[in-house]
C-alpha cells in the first residue's frame, strides 16, 4: 500500500471512529492487513484504541497485537477482559509471546502465567531467564522436527497434522531420540522427491547452528553471511531447543543499527521511540556524553592557553583555527564512520588493522595534499596572507588531515580490541580527540616556520 492510500485509509478509519459507525468500521477492518491496522493506532487515543481493537476478529487481534508498541499493548491489556487477553496470547507465536511478557509489568505477567498450563509456565519461565541479547531470548519453539527413519510420505503427513500452528515449516529439523540435531530437510525436497525415500537419504547433514547464549549481533552476521531463513539454536549438549527466524533477525538488525547511530551521536542508547519519550528522558540520555565531551574540551583550552604568545604575535593565526579544527574533525569522522559500518557488516575484522591503517594513510595523503593546495591558493588570493603564513596553515592542514584520517580509521578497531563498542569512536568523540591534536600540530608548525 502506497503512502497516499495509507493516509486516505487512516483518515477514513478515524472518521468512522469519531462518527461511532462501528458496524461499518468492523466490516472495513476485515479487509485491511494487520500491519496497516497497527499503524492506525498511532493516530488514536487510548479510548479509541481499545474500541478499534475490540472490533477486530480473534485472528486479526492477535496479528495486530504483535505489531503494536509496548505502550499500546499495555493500554489494551489494562482495558480488555482476561479471557480476551488469553485468546490473543494463544494465537501469538511463542517468541512473540515472550517478547510481550518481557515488556509487561509483573502484575500482567502473573495474570498470564496463572492461566497458563504447567508445561507452558515452565517454558515461559525458562525463556524469560535467558540474557536479553542472547539467542535464547530470541528463539521460538514453533518448528517441525522429524526422525530420520521416517519416509517422505510420513514426513509430509506429519507436517500436515502438526504444521498449522508452527511459525515456519519451510525447513524441518531432523532429531535423534535424545533430541540432538542431526540434519535439516527443506519442504521443497519433501514435496518434489519420491515419497518412498527416507529422511536420512535426503537430509542435509552440514548446517549452521548457534547456541542459546550466543550474542544477537553474531547471529545476525550468520544470517547475512549464509543467506539463512532460519537458524537452529542448540544447548550445551547440542540438543535442539528452538529456532530463530529471519523476521526476528530483521528486528535485531533494526535495533542494533538504531543503537549504533545513537552511540555515534554521543547519546545513551534507548529502544523507546522518540515521540513517546518525554523531554526529561531525552535530556537524561544526552547529558552524560555531552558533559564528558565538554570536560574533554578543556584540553583544547589548555593548548590554546599554552600557545597564547604565538596567537598574540600573529593575530591572523587565530582566524584559521576553526577551519583547521572543523576540517580535521570532518576528515576523522568520515574515516571512523566507514570503518565502524564495515565492522558492523563483518567486512572489517580486528586482524585487518594494518590494511585499514595503510589504506587510510594513502587516502589521507591524497585528500590532505589536494585540500592543502586549494587552501594555499585561497589564502594567497582571497585572504591576501603572507607567503609564510599561507604555507604554515596549508602544511598544518595536510598534516592534520593525515593524522585525523588515520586516527579515525584505527580508533574503532582499538575500541573493538578493548571489548568496547566501536560506535563510541564516532563523530563527537573523534572530533574532540582530533581537535586537540590539530591545535598541537598547528602551533608547533607555526612556531617553527614563523620563528615565534
Features of the shown structure:
452 residues; mainly alpha; MgtE N-terminal fold; CBS-domain; Tetracycline Repressor, domain 2; 3 domains; 3-stranded mixed beta sheet
Question: Mind explaining what this structure looks like?
Answer:
- There is one protein chain.
- The chain is mostly helical.
- The chain contains 24 helices and six strands.
- Strand 1, helix 12 and strand 2 (171-175) form a beta-alpha-beta unit.
- The N and C termini lie far apart (68 Å).
How are the SSEs placed, and which strands pair?
Layout: H1 3-18, H2 22-30, H3 34-40, H4 46-55, H5 58-67, H6 70-79, H7 82-91, H8 94-103, H9 106-114, H10 118-128, H11 135-138, E1 145-146, H12 152-162, E2 171-175, E3 181-186, H13 187-192, H14 199-202, E4 210-211, H15 216-226, E5 230-234, E6 240-245, H16 246-264, H17 279-296, H18 298-306, H19 308-313, H20 316-319, H21 321-344, H22 353-383, H23 387-417, H24 427-449
Parallel strand pairs: 1-2, 4-5
Antiparallel strand pairs: 2-3, 5-6
> How many strand units?
6
CATH class designation of the largest domain: Mainly Alpha
User: Total number of helical segments?
Assistant: 24
CATH superfamily of the largest domain: SLC41 divalent cation transporters, integral membrane domain
What overall geometry do the principal axes of the alpha carbons give?
Answer: elongated
- Tell me what the CATH architecture of the largest domain is: Orthogonal Bundle
Number of domains: 3
The N- to C-terminal Cα distance equals: 68 Å
| Helical/strand content category | mainly alpha
Q: Output the strand order for the largest sheet.
A: 1-2-3
Rg, rounded, reads 30 Å
Order of helices and strands: HHHHHHHHHHHEHEEHHEHEEHHHHHHHHH
**Rounded average pLDDT:** 81
Helix content: 55-70%
How many strands, what sense, and barrel or not for the largest sheet?
Answer: 3 strands, mixed
Low-confidence stretches: none
CATH topology of the largest domain: Tetracycline Repressor, domain 2
Report the portion of residues in β strands.
5-15%
Protein name: Magnesium transporter MgtE
Keywords: CBS domain, Cell membrane, Magnesium, Membrane, Metal-binding, Transmembrane, Transmembrane helix, Transport
Family: Belongs to the SLC41A transporter family.
Main location: membrane
